[in-house]
Amino acid sequence: MTALETTTVGSFPKPDYLLSARAKASKGVVKPAALRELEEQATSEWLRFQEDVGLDVLVDGEQYRGDMATYFAENLEGMEVSGLVRSYGNRYYKKPVIVGELRRARPVSVEWFRFAQERTEKSVKGMITGPYTMMDWSFDEHYGSRTEAALAFARLLHDEARDLEAAGAKIIQVDEPALSARSDELPLVVKAVGLVTKGLEAKTVLHTCYGNYEDIYPYFNRLPVDQLDLEMSNSSLDLLDRFRRDPLKKEIAFGVLDVHSHVIETRAQVVDRIEKALSLFDPQKLVIDPDCGLKTRTVDEAKAKLEVMVHATRAVKSEHGLA
Amino acid sequence: MVRTTVVGTYPRIGDTSEEQVLRRAIARFDKDEASEADVRAAEREVVKDVLREQAAAHVDVVTDGQVSWYDSQSHIARGLAGVEIGGLVRYFDTNTYYRQPIVTGPVTWKGPILVDEGQFAQGASKAPVKAVLTGPVTLANLALDRHYGKTRALAAAFAEALAEDIAALRTAGVQHIQVDEPILTRRPEDLSLVADTLGTLAARKGSAELTLATYFGDVATIYRGLLKLPVDVLGLDLVQGSKTWAQIERHGADGPLSLGIVDARNTKLEDPKALAARVLELRERVDLDHAYLSPSNGLEFLPRERARQKLAVLAEAARCVGGGA
Description:
Chain A has eleven helices and ten strands. Chain A is of the alpha/beta class.
């Protein structure tokens, strides 16, 4: 890995033309093929932006996904999608419902990974919604056991990871925002994520956010992945003290942008956050990225934030003489 | 005849366009296309709908669904001096989030927080409307404390401030007040702190019926201690907190319980007769004529349509209990 590699967490906001087309598609006014064309257009635009701004590791931007869990649910057997439930504030999503035995009839995310990777020389991350989060974020009308449901997801998501790897993914990210939901279930998270990543040659990343990290910290080094991707800025970098006491033994992707604020960080703010991270982590093991997916921001806000992030990272690299 | 109640929150939007008034109003407000008054008006329309849906299920003691609450913590906290509102933090084991209160100075009551919304809801409901407050110990545990240094001191300060709001609710004629302390399902060791702070709150409640609500888990290890608290009704989550059933069976209850028997975290619909049969197993240990049946926690974790169906399950279970089968 190069020093202070830059990347993003996965999602980007959808441009207005795609939002409008998705709304019409949900009413049957826009045909699936026409929607697909616009999703490809938006994906290509985001890939171009990421290259132009100079990010090192790219994502497909998830222009084809509504919610991260719901997207997988829509593409797995044994699942349905419920009515709208609230996430926070004015944000709602259609929550998955497990209604039968879970099965993956075909790859879920591989086609979009291929689409993105074919359009860039840089590495594109394969993105999987993690087994624990899929379980925790689904209503369960079938298994009646959180462990059974999580492990059922893990088994089929391992197949998904294998298929991403076969399609050329050098980095596979498992999103587990629900990681900190129940501290007594952290052994289940370790087991389920371990089933997904077992035997993979690709670099594995686990992304999590918005949790009480104090309780889950002892598990960080036990998570069976190469890199932890953590939201840091939303919580004012509170975790740094803990890292100082108990060093992390993995690579870290360090969130330097608060994705839930409309305010564009200044370069000085982001430089300061990176400098604080550098005071603790080896630059070869430190990745710079936003706290979380940027889909809740406007297109302009997301771009402006990422420009600041890349420029701030360059400034720090130059200051420290890092290649 | 067993009564029914709800624990607080209710889905504020549904899947139909008519049920998304509030979502649209807030989206317009965010784009500077609507005023705060427009959002308040939309909230009040939704409160009326929420009250209508509870009335349709014959819920005996209703709430306004906490429709105007941004989240479980910041709604109360932003009404207090000495508290700022920070970043998003996951709310217990739910996949919802709250803006974390940050305590930066002495916590004091600035003025009524819940009175306006309580009065509006009561004016739109024939059934008594219960006011819901986040409990001081839960607030203290979930906040980021940069001033007091000790949870006990912070909880006591929150209690003093919330007691003023309870007094204001009483003056406004509110008859039912619920204090939520879900933290007890995670930190049973905080029981004595809850006892102390409830003392502060109960001293100002007048003749209102005061309920302590616990949810998101069991309180089996502290059940007997909970029975001694200075409250009129003890609310229990008997779904996620199913371990508490055995304690009720063993120790009974002298005072009224609110039995959270309908799963408010899962869409799977229960058989009302089976629920009623379980409740009737308690009839030698619990005075069911003074008990409530309720969902296990607030209903907002469910889609609106399913929340309505869960209320129907609740009503039917209560009817079966009343019929003795």
